[in-house]
Amino acid sequence: MAIAPSIDMLLEPAPSVAEERNLETVEMTINMGPQHPSTHGVFRMVLTLEGERVKNVQSHIGYLHRGAEKLGESGDLEGYRKAMITLDRTDYLSSLLNEHAYVMAVEKLAGISVPERAEYIRVILGEITRINSHCMFYGAFGADSGATTPFMYAFALREEIQQLFEAVGGARMFPNYYRAGGLREDVPHDFVRRVQTIIDRALYAFDDFDNLITTNEIFLSRTRGLGIIDQTRALDLGVSGPLLRATGLPYDVRRSEPYSIYDRFAFDVPVGTTGDCYERYLIRQEEMRQSVRIIDQALKDLPGGPTMGNAPKALRPPKGEAYVRIENSRGDFGVYLVSDGKSSAPYRVKYRSPCFVNLQSLNDMVIGTYIADAVVALGSIDIVLGEVDR
Amino acid sequence: MRDAKGLRPMEGVRARIESATSGLASVFGTAIDEVTVTVPPENLPEAARRLKETDGLKFDYLRCLSGVDYQSDGIEVVYHLFSTRLAQKCVLKTRLAAEGDAVGTVTTVWAGADWHERETAEMFNIRFEGHPYPEPLLLERDDQGTIVPGPVLLKRFKLRPKEPPAQYGFPEEE
Question: Is the pTM of this model over 0.90?
Fold first, then answer.
């Protein structure tokens, strides 16, 4: 009976023919992207290869740059609401989380208070968005590492979540649902039942996700020990989200600088030890379960009452600046808002998107690996190019 | 010694920054719940290094780096900092007199400032001296080497209304 080679043996890089026979190989430069299915959007890596090994990588971004910040500053009729329209379209997978950051920045600047019910609904929808986004990661990461089935499983759950978004905000992708001071309108009457159904099914779906690839030997050998960044380097780069937590630092904005009402819920922040691609995957899997935990608690306490405070529709906050950040599904998302006290539109809007910073760690991850592993390493960052380029 | 959000109070942070940045002509202020410290551009890299390395400050995490165009009052470069170990935050600022001016790079202090600085440089037409690769990031150069469409986030750069598309179909026969 043949004995299957252990994973550690597979991880040992075998000496290539060129290395064994001491042959000279010619360096080759190839363009991966901008249009390439595994770049998750429009992203170009210029890879310098020696055989199949990556010697150097140069990232080129900006293909999706639409000037979201400039457009946000130019709201003449819509004022402070205009920035949210373009913000929704930057990170299209975590629109509601980013909207939360933006409205919190406006509320902080203008000193607006938010009704309890609105806060709870924001947390519930935010965590559902996180599950939705991590499902997308799960599907795409599976595809990156050679498995196509995860995509189908992930999208079955995503479909139900998108339908909930449609019922709540009127659109599947860009809800534009939050307002400074609360929500655009109250949730539908069957909201609690629908969310309950989704999280009940989600828990079964997560088990399915696990059964499919978490302990799959091929998946393990493709992801374990790959793309390691140590903690010091990760902090130096400003990396956040699952990438930073995989290095062992329990750094989650919901915990380290609690916002909204996150201090009322019990949840764990999963961390890794080595900081490789596999741990990033595991952390995201666990985060989805923790999100369900938060939603469960929030649904139990969901109060009645209004969903909109007495905030004026045309805002003119006093002169000043506010910086607000949240933990979105990819990491630390920040909104820097400056008001000049005169105009009805923000004087300056800056989005600090987590992917923009996380993507800088690509060089550390892929140099020295095989070109096929570069795809997996890039997938483990979970980039959304709309957010990188803004 | 933590507030409701688990962060250290502003006054203590301010006092520690004051002693750490002595001799750098720093001016203090507040932005709602954060301490702001403004230094002249020539002192900025030194101030950044001290904020990161001084005991009791240890601002090891660059939250955000951005610019704000105050038109006749110059261009402000803003560094939002956080200390993951000590749970405290602050805002470091510097004011450049006009576009084309330069401030020293902080990529040697926080490596992640690399892309932030490239983006801020192209959007506000300012320079970060000593940056390892001072090339545009999101925008591009045209044949003549100028960055198109220009320093977008400056207030003098106005958005044009979209031009109507050219007529489709065949030109009319004469």
Answer: no
